[in-house]
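just leaving the lab so this will be short. below you get a single protein, a line of residues and a line of whole numbers that encode the local backbone shape. id like you to explain what the token line says about the fold, in plain words if possible. thanks a lot i owe you, the record is right below:

…
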Amino acid sequence: MMRLEDLLRAFPRPFVTDGELEGLLPGTPDSRYSKVKRLIAQGKLHHIRRGLYCLTDRMQFVTKPHPFELAQLIYGPSYISLESALSFHQLIPERVYTVTSTTCKRSKEFKTPLGLFSFLHLPLENFYTEVELVTESNSHFFMAKPWKAICDFIYCYKKDWQGLSPLVESLRIQPESLPELRDEQIELLDEYYHHMRINRFLKSVKKDLLNER
């Protein structure tokens, strides 16, 4: 029988779940976990959360996990948004060190060997409004589109923003870097949040964008 270390080196992803380990290794849960604990002690596996492990660079020829793909395994349903999405879309200049996501479950934060993962609550209904599936370096993850990420920021952090000025002053977003804000997007986002702060922001920023252009 192949060693767990060899099986994981040949595994198609740099992370593995308890369910996948059950398919790789016969035997009892206790016998499997003893092998897992041995690799953790040797620094060859990171324990990310209950039932989720990540291969380390001590396992030769293993690619690093994409933090955005990992986030959705740590806590879901969720998608990348807020500061991480704004950075991904190159709207804010700062490098983001915490992976920020939204979730329809309660807000939660995870400190892991691979960094900090933060999840903030949003309403459940039509959760994936203005969210797209992104493929990057053979990794797949859900990402908020630019205006959804901005609205998530306003909603989650309870910002009472109107127009372009707060985006420039607080987030240092340059107006020329913003994509077009279409009427159908305003309608979708307004219907999703169903919140006066978002409604005021979308109408005022649309007006400012028209004046800018």
Observations:
- Residues 4-55 form one domain.
